[in-house]
Amino acid sequence: MPEISQPAPDFTLPVTGGGEVTLSALQGAPVVLFFYPRDDTPGCTKESVGFSEHLDAFEAAGAKVFGISRDSMAKHDKFAAKHDLTVPLLSDSEGSVTEDYGVWVEKNMYGKKSMGIERATYLIAADGTIAQIWRKVKVPGHVEEVLDAVRAL
Fold first, then answer.
1. Rounded to an integer, what distance in angstroms lies between the CA atom of residue 90 and that of residue 69?
2. Which of 44, 117, 131, 149 is catalytic?
3. Between 20 and 30 A from 146 (CA), which of 29, 59, 84, 130?
4. pLDDT one-digit tens code per residue, 21-60
5. Annotation marks residue 152 as catalytic
6. Looking at the domain assignment, is residue 1 inside a domain?
7. What is the CATH number of the domain that holds 129?
8. In angstroms, rounded to a whole number, what is the distance separating the alpha carbons of residues 49 and 87?
9. How many domains does one find in the chain?
C-alpha cells in the first residue's frame, strides 16, 4: 500500500466519454483519486455527485479529479448519464489499480466476509507523490475536506 510522500503507482485506465487516462501524464498538477465500491449505490452516488458539484472549484485550484471503481465502462457511462455526473470515472475492471493502492480489502457486512473496494481518496501532488490519504471515507463533508487539502498544497 502506498504511503504519504511516496510516488503514486502509475496506471492507464479507460475513462468515461472515451479515451484513456495515464496518471504519470498528469504530473505538473495535483490529482484527486477517489476509490468507491460500486456505481449507483447510495453512498457512491452521493460521493460522485459531490465531486461533480465541486469539480469547477477543484479545477480552479488546478486539480484533476477522477473516480475509480471496478465497474465496467458501460456501467460507468450509464451511472454518469443517470446522475448527470461531470467528474470523469475510470474503470479498473481488471483490479490492478485498486490492488496497487491497497483499497481492495476484505469486508465484513452482517457477518458475511467478501472482497471489495474500501472507500478511500488519494491526493497526489504535482510532482507525482502522494500528499494525503483518506481511508474508510465517510461521505458527508469529505469532498469539501479534500478541496481544502488541494487548496493547501
1. 7
2. 44
3. 84
4. 999 999 999 999 999 999 999 999 999 999 999 999 999 9
5. no
6. no
7. 3.40.30.10
8. 8
9. 1
What is the pairing mode between strands 89-91 and 130-134? unpaired
Q: Does the global pTM surpass 0.90? A: yes
DSSP letter, residue 26: G
* Residue 51 domain boundaries: 12-152
- Does any domain span residue 71? yes
| H helices, E strands: number in the chain | 5, 9
| pLDDT of res. 112 | 87
Q: What is the pLDDT of residue 110?
A: 85
Question: In the predicted model, what is the mean pLDDT of the chain?
Answer: 96
- Asked if residue 2 belongs to a domain, the reply is no
Q: How confident is the model over 84-111, as pLDDT tens digits?
A: 999 999 999 999 999 999 999 998 878 8
Query: Does residue 74 lie in a domain region?
Result: yes
15: its cell numbers: 475513462
> In this structure, are residues 59 and 88 in contact, taking their beta carbons and an 8 Å threshold?
no
> How many CB atoms lie under 10 A from the CB of residue 98?
21
Cell matching residue 27:
504530473
